[in-house]
Amino acid sequence: MRAWLHRQSFKPDVTVAVFFGVVTIFFYGSILWTFYMSMTRSTLMPSYELIGFDQYVKLFTNYRWLVSCMNMVIFGVLFIIGTLCFGALLAIFADRRIQAESLFRTIFLYPLAVSLIVTGLSWRWVLDPVNGLQGLMRSAGWESFTFDWLTNPDRAIYTLVIASIWHSTGLVMVIILAGLRGVDNDLWRAIRMEGVPLWRAYLQVIFPGMRPVIASCVVLLMSEVIRGYDLVIAMTKGGPGIATEMPAKFAVDFYFARVNLGLASAASIVMLLISLVMLTPYFYSEFRKRI
Amino acid sequence: MSSVSIRQIRKSFAGLTVLDSVDMEIAPGEFVVILGSSGCGKSTLLNVIAGLDDCDSGQILIGDVDVSHLEPSQRGLAMVFQSYALFPAMTVRRNLSFGMEIAGTPKATIAEKVAWAARLLQIEALLDRKPSQLSGGQRQRVAIGRALVRSSSICLFDEPLSNLDAKLRAETRVELKQLHETLKSTMIYVTHDQIEAMTMADRVAVMHKGKVEQFAEPQTVYEKPASLFVAGFIGSPAMNFLKGTLEGTLRFKTHDVCLDASSYGFAAGPTAAEVILGIRCEDVDVVERGTPDSIPATLAFTELLGADALGWFDCLGQRFSVKLTVDAARAMQRDVGFRFNMSKASFFLAATERRL
């Protein structure tokens, strides 16, 4: 076999072909199968009788799905803006050559090493009204202290935002810091010659010049928003009520708990479409320049 | 138009002396080129003048005002950078107006100045483009424009042409010179390119190891280099050198040859000493071997340069370059003699490497 391989001139092609085969079958194959399932009345077991787009109609008249989508938008917007702001701010501090920069960089990057499940669990303990921060403050004598967002249906979604910002800020900081380090020193000298105040320099000159870096951050964070499942499971389990439901959790619930293969597949395909719609501007702006 | 006085500037980084008591008096409206190889401290000197770097001691005066402790933006200077340093996300128009906006200049004045600079530099058609849509030469114009609209009386250039290709560099060089004649502002220009220095400067400051070796008009620097370093640095091909002794009777003795040096203009009278004779390639006459008062030399090879030619000879153990006509180069014998035009030669004291 080895001798045979040695004689072949297309070894790289073989390797790549295997890789492509795997991707095609398990990745695109799965997508196609899911799409097929979304066009059927499958419940626990797949059924192969096509019924058209009925499942999609059902999906978009499902109140829980609509709440999930709304939650994703609220969560996504706040999470991405918040993470970018905090990450950029920390990156600026690090770039201003603070003392013990590498120590702080490690500290801020540390949350990323913690899995989302553990992140969610820890934050659930901290935010728990009885045993967490609120309980601590009350037992310390501040009787009227109230911080019950975790159990408040109108506020629970924001606790998810807080926890995920904590989790992702370090990553954004490191990426933006790398971008800041790449800024031409002459540009900084020009900024000083013109007497541009520091905040205007960052907002109007440096960050606008780092658009590809920031776009990459946004794409990374967006994928986290659409995938958002583990944090919800660990922190709120979608509750109170359905206040923190997310599309990914909706799909998993309908696949496994409610055994509605057709509807869950339709939800998955819609999520795929949402991802494509959100990422298209990025790919468009990135690849347009190359051509 | 303002004068610039640089007085006793010293600076060192981590024990390494970068600027060693630099003194320079620049007259109003003068075009001064600071020339040196990389690491000689020329860019640091410019940064110190601009206020982008602090100096350890010394003073910078602009006009009669001591600006040593002012922020760069308060010194009334403009600066053009090697990598242009345009604000990347702003249009050319915004690049020109941003600094004035920060300074709180009225809108009408801003528009007027931008229009004036754009017309002067012929970048009117580019005003609404982003820097990424411009070529290197266009970017450099915009960078110069951004310096012009600051209407400061002094403009600093940090190797502004280094990133341009040779043809564009030659064109922009001429344009910069014309710009200086139009604006008559004081310009301080840092470069490692001696052609830029020779063609543009009113005066050249040659720097070496943090010191100004010579600060004089370009032709003086070429004809009467103040030190061995300047002699070797300026001119292409480099000056030819011969070690020897100067005898009180105005004779230069090297190996077993004795040359008459009476036509040389000594600055402070000749002294008997160990010296180094420097002579440019165009000041060597090739004569027949054995001519009186000549040095034997052997041809190594010739280079034809189109308009003229260079002959490379071995002479007393040194490689000599001699400028020749193309015909002379073609007919050159192997064994010849050299005669030096002593009135155009340079003598340097071997111990101090300073000009005699």
TrEMBL record, chain A:
Main location: membrane
Entry GO terms, CC: plasma membrane
Gene Ontology biological process: transmembrane transport
PROSITE patterns according to UniProt: ABC_TM1
Stored InterPro entries: ABC_transporter_permease, MetI-like, MetI-like_sf
All copies of domain ABC transmembrane type-1, residue ranges: 69-282
Family indicated by similarity: Belongs to the binding-protein-dependent transport system permease family.
Name under which the protein is recorded: Sugar ABC transporter permease
Organism expressing this protein natively: Mesorhizobium kowhaii
Upper classification of the organism: Bacteria, Pseudomonadati, Pseudomonadota, Alphaproteobacteria, Hyphomicrobiales
Automatic annotation (TrEMBL), chain B:
InterPro entries registered for this protein in UniProt: AAA+_ATPase, ABC_transporter-like_ATP-bd, ABC_transporter-like_CS, ABC_transpr_MalK-like, ABC_transpr_MalK/UgpC-like, Mo/tungstate-bd_C_term_dom, NA-bd_OB-fold, OB_MalK-like
Membrane topology: Peripheral membrane protein
GO CC term (a single one): ATP-binding cassette (ABC) transporter complex, substrate-binding subunit-containing
Biological-process GO terms, alphabetical: carbohydrate transport
A Pfam entry, by short name: OB_MalK
Domain of life: Bacteria
Entry keywords, A to Z: ATP-binding, Nucleotide-binding, Transport
Every ABC transporter domain range: 4-234
Family membership: Belongs to the ABC transporter superfamily.
Entries under PANTHER family matching the protein: ABC TRANSPORTER ATP-BINDING PROTEIN, MALTODEXTRIN IMPORT ATP-BINDING PROTEIN MSMX
This protein's name: ABC transporter ATP-binding protein
Highest classification ranks of the organism: Bacteria, Pseudomonadati, Pseudomonadota, Alphaproteobacteria, Hyphomicrobiales
